[in-house]
UniProtKB/TrEMBL annotation:
InterPro entries tied to this protein: Glyas_Bleomycin-R_OHBP_Dase, Glyoxalase_6, VOC_core
Family annotation (Pfam families): Glyoxalase_6
Name of protein: VOC family protein
SUPFAM superfamilies for this protein: Glyoxalase/Bleomycin resistance protein/Dihydroxybiphenyl dioxygenase
Biological source species: Streptomyces piniterrae
Residues covered by the VOC domain: 8-125
Domain of life per record: Bacteria
Length: 125
């Protein structure tokens, strides 16, 4: 075999109880477009291109706990989202259905939970 095969990351998938509800939250938060919608799957893409964000309905979905605690559902990943105004972006995220985390580990980053409980961070660029 000569050389490795080509790999290209297409999308990050978030499992959740309702793919359409969570996709709508991120569509409004990020200003992205729905590119594919199926009964249990939604794909969003940034209008400027890049890696997509997808949502898959999972009936057995369990919300992660953050900060992590032994013996509880751990987060598998979190999204870091760059913003130009941390206070305004945080207020908008809450208006859309996010919840501000009680524990905030840094002054220049703000941790939130999306409506399905996935943590995400807003930070200044």
């Amino acid at each position: 075999m000569s050389g490795s095969p080509r790999f290209s990351l297409a999308t990050v998938v978030l499992d959740c109880p309702d793919a359409h509800a969570l996709a709508d939250f991120y569509r409004l938060l990020l200003g992205w477009e729905v590119k594919l919608s199926e009964p249990d799957w939604v794909l969003l893409r940034c209008p400027d291109g890049g890696v997509g964000l997808s949502f898959q309905s999972e009936p057995g979905y369990r919300r992660p706990v953050w900060p992590e605690r032994p013996e509880e559902q751990q987060k598998m990943l979190h999204l870091d989202i760059r913003v130009d105004d941390l206070a305004k972006a945080g207020a908008y995220a809450v208006e859309l259905g996010a919840t501000r985390a009680a524990f905030q580990p840094q002054d220049d980053v703000c941790v939130f939970f999306d409506p399905a409980g996935h943590p995400f961070c807003l930070f200044l660029h």
